[in-house]
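User: Here's a structure from my thesis project, written as structure tokens. My advisor, Dr. K., wants to see whether a designed sequence matches the one we expressed. Can you design one independently, without my sequence as a hint?
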């Protein structure tokens, strides 16, 4: 996986920071986005791949939760 790849979340992943449901679990399975960063040495992020889904929502995920599309 590389920066710029289009991806799809292939399994159920609950997040609590989605703009439309703050502090409530939101499943991002099947959402599509673009890899914007791959963190080699995590400082604050515990998951290495940053995916931007839209202007207001990004998440850090593991490689095994994602599949490359297009």
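Assistant: Designed independently from the structure alone:
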């Amino acid at each position: 996986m590389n920066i710029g790849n289009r991806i799809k979340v292939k399994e159920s992943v609950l997040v609590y920071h989605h703009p439309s449901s703050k502090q409530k679990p939101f499943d991002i399975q099947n959402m599509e986005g673009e890899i914007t960063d791959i963190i080699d040495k995590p400082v604050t992020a515990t998951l290495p791949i940053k995916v931007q889904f839209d202007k207001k929502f990004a998440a850090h995920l593991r490689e095994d939760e994602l599949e490359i599309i297009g």
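When you compare it with your expressed construct, this may help: The beta strands are 6-9, 14-15, 26-27, 32-38, 49-54, 57-61, 66-69.
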